[in-house]
Amino acid sequence: MTSVDLEPFAHLIPDARKVLDSSEAARFVFICRDKLIETPALRQVQQYGEELYAHAQIQRPPNGLLIGPSGIGKTHAISSLVDRHPPRRSRASGELRVPILLLEYPPEPSRRWFTKAIAEGLGYLMPLPRHSADIYALLLRLIDRARTRLIICEEVGQLHGWGREHVLYFYGLTRCLSNQTKVPIIYAGTDQAADLIDGDIQLKRRFEHLKLVPWKADAEFAGFIKAYLRTLPLRHETIVDLSLVECVHEMSEGITDTVVKILNRAAKRAIQSGAERITAVDIVAGVSLPPVVTVGRPIVRRRQRRR
Fold this sequence. Notes:
It is built from 14 helices and 7 strands. By secondary structure, the protein is an alpha/beta fold. It folds into 2 domains: about 5-35 and about 215-285, no CATH class; about 40-210, P-loop containing nucleotide triphosphate hydrolases (Rossmann fold, 3-Layer(aba) Sandwich), CATH 3.40.50.300. Strands 4-5-6-1-7 form a 5-stranded parallel sheet, with helices on both faces. A two-stranded antiparallel sheet has the order 2-3. Strand 2 and strand 3 (about 95) form a beta hairpin.
């Protein structure tokens, strides 16, 4: 028997062990925290993003279209990539360096909203010029000054239903940014984003599709469940057998975000029941039950006397 086997709660990561003796509410808060678990999708996006980030500046830089169903892990993977190259201030000039410019397309039809988001992401907080030509010139200067090497924009698929005028503006702005800055671009969204890009013959040729697909109920999926369970502060180790894997996969349809929510809820119920481990029965039972909440002390309010 090794020393590792004798270590208490060896089935948990160190941070999860620290909260085992905390209150139920504190353990629930820890369970709901964002957690970075390496998945095939995360590795795929990181590798592809790093390739574009390191690409030489050329007249027609390569671009990528990251597509997949909602909750598959696009945002999670993109955030981890951006964290590798965070914005920083130049010690010499004080100017903001933005190696990766991360944006999200606006929630409603608006030209200036999107260009304003680009400018603010590059540290420009003054009002934009009135004319489009001046705005484009400003954005190009800001991108060059910030030494941006990669532009990423999420939620572009929603633009698909905004009307031809906004779509044509998007096509023009994309070509301008790509041609003039020589900086690779990654757009991310659902299948509607693919329809959007494929609607312009030039962009269709310039953007390589990178599709993320749901998990299969296989050994790789079981490995992800095991890795995630190590982050949940339960005193006893959960047995990840075929029954548990198939149960979680059937309920989640292989969508990463749904898997996480299923396991989080099951962990909370395991804490409240005192079982301190998750079983397939607990997961099935949780389907029809209300959300798990921690029960606090009742608040007693004194009635005011009438004068």
